Amino acid sequence: MKVVIVGTGYVGLVTGACLADVGLNVCCVDVDVKKIENLKKGILPIYEPGLDMIVERNFKKERLSFSTDLPSAIRGSEVAFIAVGTPPGEDGSADLKYVLAVATEIGEHMSDYGLVITKSTVPVGTAEKVRSALKEAQQKRGVDIPFDVASNPEFLKEGAAIQDFMKPDRIVVGVDSERAQELMSKLYNPFTLNGHPVLFMDIPSAEMTKYAANSMLATKISFMNDIANLCELMGADVNMVRKGIGSDPRIGNKFIYPGIGYGGSCFPKDVKALIRTGREQGYRMRILESVEEVNELQKEVLFDKIHAHFDGELEGKTFSMWGLSFKPNTDDMREAPALVLIEKLLNAGAKVRAYDPVAMEEAKHSLGDSIHYAKDEYDALVDSHGLLLVTEWSEFRVPNWDVVKKLMSEKVVFDGRNIYDRADIEALSFTYHGIGV
Fold it and tell me: Which domains does the chain have, with CATH numbers?
């Protein structure tokens, strides 16, 4: 089976590499010439643990190829995934121009039956727009080549995407023909041999499932952050509360860790898009509106703690920031809480020395030279008035506190992810500020 993946961003590249790794013939296509040339050299545009090895292995075996020529790639292919970006507009709606442009180009060059699958996160109704674009392109050619469309949303966690693709909790597929369902069953057969289910449904339901899943997870995060803020006011410990409610199987213990807000490419965008979809239908998504509001305010919580601790006197002070990416095991800086915190510190006249294991180059696109990029976590501490734990990378969990003490000017820790034990930190003569404790 020949498969074409259009778009070599996070979703497209992971999808293409993993499909090739089970023996399929995959061509990843992108309009970015430099990106394609780099991929041929083994230079990836994203950081994802283990992805580089899979790409290299399958490129060498010629199961995975890269091209800028969609017309050539589409000829003879049975399946084409659309995995291009859907950036949010100012009103929160998903911009479908890239998705529909790809659909049009496929329609202009397909020569035999093909299944066109939206892999990008797209609003309900997008598959029908893709279908219309394909038909219109064929009509202009004066041809009537049979095709199907399908929706196959991704549920990849950045930092664990390979595991998620190879051993999925579930594979959601929206189809409206037996032929499309048979082809999708064949495509995903290698991933279902161990019992991982493919959930077939109608196309609109599949499109909605992606948004509903991400919005539910975002809701759990904002709910827990709201509870954490109230715990702090009432003298309760949110870490104890989390354990108490997480032991209830109806609630579960995932995505109930308090912190300084969610970020990344999915949750913020998808929550906004679903709110927008509701408005277009004359319906307010009241819970999600609150989820978004809580999250935006939560990104300021750590700064508020810093401001209060120093009585607003931040001018000229230096702060050490451990972590920049929105979560560990990724270099993704999109909607990262670190960006909000840094902006507020700089506006208050403070200086920032930051270290992140992989995200510093990516951070420079947003921050430029406005902060100091440290060579390691200890270099970030030199003459620091406060340590800010922003991203819970594993290497920050057990630092050498004796070294930390010697390097810092003031002994205060602002733990934005509650990875340290307050009693342990205070026993080391540090002042400790966490979230909801």
Answer: 2-201 (3.40.50.720), 211-298 (1.10.1040.10), 301-433 (3.40.50.720)
